[in-house]
């Protein structure tokens, strides 16, 4: 397949004159741009600071009392089981679809969107 492409002997920009951009940035210009963005973000960081919340004294006691409720354990078990089971992926699904259904790449992308 690669040998059938028109630019297999060289890079596309060596053969196609429209494969490059008319503009570029030098390394100092790029570094200046990145430094400007970083400085602006550091200045805006001061606006985002918040006051510290008062420290919770009985956190462990409240946490333990919540752990003793049945509803919390149901949520914890559901979360654990769903993360384990929903994360299972069949690695043979994609190659099997290409072979058995005679799929092409565009058709496969449409199938993924519809899933």
Question: What's this, in brief?
Answer:
The protein is an all-alpha fold and 115 residues long. The protein has helices at residues 12-15, 27-45, 59-67, 70-86, 93-100, 105-114.
Element pattern in H and E = HHHHHH
What is the mean predicted local confidence, pLDDT?
79
Tell me the major beta sheet: none
Pairing-aware structural class of the strands and helices? Answer: mainly alpha
From the structure provided, what is the oligomeric state, counting identical versus distinct chains? single chain
Rg over alpha carbons: 28 Å
- Low-pLDDT ranges: none
Our measurement of the CA-to-CA distance between the termini, rounded to an integer number of angstroms, reads 30 Å
With helices defined by DSSP (H or I, 4 residues minimum), what is the helix count? Answer: 6
Query: Which strand-content bin applies to the residues?
Result: under 5%
Helix content: 55-70%
Q: What would you call the shape?
A: flat
Total beta strand runs:
0
Keywords:
single chain, 115 residues, mainly alpha, 6 helices, 58% helix, flat
């Amino acid at each position: 397949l690669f040998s059938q492409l028109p630019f297999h002997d060289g890079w596309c920009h060596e053969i196609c004159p429209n494969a490059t951009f008319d503009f570029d940035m030098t390394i100092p210009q790029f570094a200046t741009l990145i430094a400007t963005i970083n400085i602006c973000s550091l200045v805006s960081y001061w606006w985002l600071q918040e006051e510290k919340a008062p420290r919770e004294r009985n956190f462990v006691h409240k946490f333990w009392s919540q752990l003793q409720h049945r509803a919390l354990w149901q949520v914890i078990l559901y979360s654990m089981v769903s993360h384990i089971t929903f994360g299972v992926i069949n690695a043979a699904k994609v190659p099997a679809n290409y072979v058995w259904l005679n799929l092409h790449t565009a058709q496969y992308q449409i199938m993924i969107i519809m899933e």
